[in-house]
Amino acid sequence: xxxxxxxxxxxxxxxxxxxxxxxxxxxxxxxxxxxxxxxxxxxxxxxxxxxxxxxxxxxxxxxxxxxxxxxxxxxxxxxxxxxxxxxxxxxxxxxxxxxxxxxxxxxxxxxxxxxxxxxxxxxxxxxxxxxxxxxxxxxxxxxxxxxxxxxxxxxxxxxxxxxxxxxxxxxxxxxxxxxxxxxxxxxxxxxxxxxxxxxxxxxxxxxxxxxxxxxxxxxxxxxxxxxxxxxxxxxxxxxxxxxxxxxxxxxxxxxxxxxxxxxxxxxxxxxxxxxxxxxxxxxxxxxxxxxxxxxxxxxxxxxxxxxxxxxxxxxxxxxxxxxxxxxxxxxxxxxxxxxxxxxxxxxxxxxxxxxxxxxxxxxxxxxxxxxxxxxxxxxxxxxxxxxxxxxxxxxxxxxxxxxxxxxxxxxxxxxxxxxxxxxxxxxxxxxxxxxxxxxxxxxxxxxxxxxxxxxxxxxxxxxxxxxxxxxxxxxxxxxxxxxxxxxxxxxxxx
Length: 494
Prior knowledge:
Layout: H1 3-67, H2 69-76, H3 83-97, E1 101-105, E2 110-113, E3 118-120, H4 125-132, E4 138-143, E5 150-160, E6 163-172, H5 174-180, E7 190-194, E8 200-204, H6 216-221, H7 225-236, E9 241-247, E10 250-258, E11 265-271, H8 272-327, H9 337-350, E12 356-363, H10 366-373, H11 375-389, E13 398-403, E14 406-411, H12 417-433, E15 446-453, H13 460-476, E16 482-484, H14 488-493
Parallel strand pairs: 15-16
Antiparallel strand pairs: 1-2, 1-6, 2-3, 4-5, 5-6, 7-8, 7-11, 9-10, 10-11, 12-14, 12-15, 13-14
């Protein structure tokens, strides 16, 4: 085992063993508490689901109360309620309010429905409650007294010329079941709406043992008098809670929540067997998790060394990528100015006597390109030049953008005078065929200055100055041409 491997073992294996021990202790403690926590979780989910269902129900009942109020306001503006006008308005209101019937009556309970029929609800049970409501909008659950259906009845006061009248809206009871089904907690076997006396107003659920008109307190009293008494006390005091009771052969957990409407309370229930199944499932999941955790820990220990090696390789590669990114000109993909200068200096330091060439390229009339074609096209010219010119040189040569429209090319180890001219002609020929632009092909030209290292400059600064002077000479001669710092290179190559 080498020193690096030993270091990895000391660094990773020891802490891993301690981690294993700590995790095993945590898993053991968690497993001993899982059953109670599972029960608490199920109870919490049940309570939250009941609250969600209640919110849906409250929203629906509130909607029933508010939807008729604008209709009542329109009717109040009528001086006379003749049958034609009343029937027309009530028919329209029934169409858009979701009711199956609307009834307009005076203080005695006599009036007209949406079909123009004269009816009376004076002898109906809920009429006394309607009259007692005075000038407030109220909700009732009762026989409608018109269609012979049990309904949710909304009573809205209307200022009649002869006194306070009523507009009654009738909604079907199955609307309650539809609201209940909006909730995702399908395990409920009991969903009921009760009044303050415990009378069931509405009932739903997969196996609800109560029907409309039953008294929940009396039904529970026989099974568990104490639970029934406690539940009644909390409901009367408008307090939510949860009670476990046995109903027939089924143990149920009942959740009761006040609705805030008419002292009504919503009662939901779920069989204890369902809760037990959920608890058992969670316990099973815990055991599976423990086995999986042990397996993961074992694999983790085996992979520690591999991960350490891979991470080191990755870090080296990442560092190299970051360095390359820092050296890259974002527009052209070439070396940027700092990277170009650094790489040339590094080569010169290692090879002080290796004859090489430096080109400085400057695109002719680049300002005019930007002014006439736009800066975006100017950038495209630079991008195309960078992509294309790098392909005509060796991979070992240094090609970079010095900034703006200026480029630097440094060709390493050009030993023969003939090769000097050959490389210069290669650059000249490149600009004869160079075109930029994806749709508009633009033939850009360049002025080029060339200097030879180390004869015309023994370091970066001096060779750059020599090439720059040659570039200036090329521009003086009319641009779109190449000039050497010393013209002898042209002579020697001919």
